């Protein structure tokens, strides 16, 4: 991911090599190049516009520097702007004052929610938490079994309806799962919810009902970074329909153009907390805007 964007940005900086100072024409030409590179990477238009305007403004206001040549100055400005659109500081999970902390996962089917439940469970367990996973995705055939498998692999218990118990209602499962976490003193409960292939009213309503039944401390919207430009409209629909407090970018190991990752913060105003970078349970990390920016400009 980002290979193309990195190449394009690096090429635009190279044009400034050997210049004594940054002229207005240099700045305009470089900003146009950056704009094109971002659009080509599928970054959302409003985000591109703001990015370009900010880079232009900072470059024009930049002092003549003894230490940095114009190319280096622009790299520094673009780096700072990338950190900014990626969310500035990284943010930790919000833990409840009185456990259990309830974390609800939302997102389209296939976005990586069930996998994430296992990854996050393992990650939390390694930090001394005692998580419980709740299988409230009763829509997708096999989702309950899949959660049980990832739970087993992660060594994290799973709350699921008894096979044949007739409980077909995700709200009941979610509510009883949170109750179970209270009763058994789990410090965190992670609620996996159903997603459809596309956004629809029924799915949104179910997510709202699960939200209202569990009163989550965090709602994490799981966004498949591979879905390109659709990512922005999907994120917007979830922000409007259910609301969320943070984002997890999944499949960042793929070869998509990276626009989703760069747009989601600007479009929804919500921070990216984690990145999922593969199919294994350990392919998971905190999201650090500064590290991501450096990776893009490397
Ligand atoms: P859900 O429908 O939202 O619960 O999605 P799943 O957790 O079942 O994930 C859908 C598919 O994406 C599965 O084949 C996962 O193995 C795969 N997947 C999930 N996260 C990642 C990731 O970060 N990278 C890659 N390459 N694949 C992933």
UniProtKB/TrEMBL annotation:
* Enzyme Commission code: 3.6.5.4
Q: Which reaction does it catalyse?
A: GTP + H2O = GDP + phosphate + H(+)
The SRP54-type proteins GTP-binding domain covers: 271-284
Major subcellular location class:
cytoplasm
| Top-level EC class | hydrolase
Q: Which domain of life is it from?
A: Bacteria
Could you say which residues bind GTP here?
107-114, 192-196, 250-253
The protein's location, in the record's own words, is: Cytoplasm
Query: Which keywords annotate this record?
Result: Coiled coil, Cytoplasm, GTP-binding, Hydrolase, Nucleotide-binding, Ribonucleoprotein, RNA-binding, Signal recognition particle
Family, per entry: Belongs to the GTP-binding SRP family. SRP54 subfamily.
Q: What free text does the record give on domains?
A: Composed of three domains: the N-terminal N domain, which is responsible for interactions with the ribosome, the central G domain, which binds GTP, and the C-terminal M domain, which binds the RNA and the signal sequence of the RNC.
Give the quaternary structure.
Answer: Part of the signal recognition particle protein translocation system, which is composed of SRP and FtsY.
Q: Describe the task this protein carries out.
A: Involved in targeting and insertion of nascent membrane proteins into the cytoplasmic membrane. Binds to the hydrophobic signal sequence of the ribosome-nascent chain (RNC) as it emerges from the ribosomes. The SRP-RNC complex is then targeted to the cytoplasmic membrane where it interacts with the SRP receptor FtsY.
Name of the protein in its database record = Signal recognition particle protein
- Species name: Georgenia halophila
Q: What is the lineage of its organism?
A: Bacteria, Bacillati, Actinomycetota, Actinomycetes, Micrococcales
- The gene for this chain is ffh
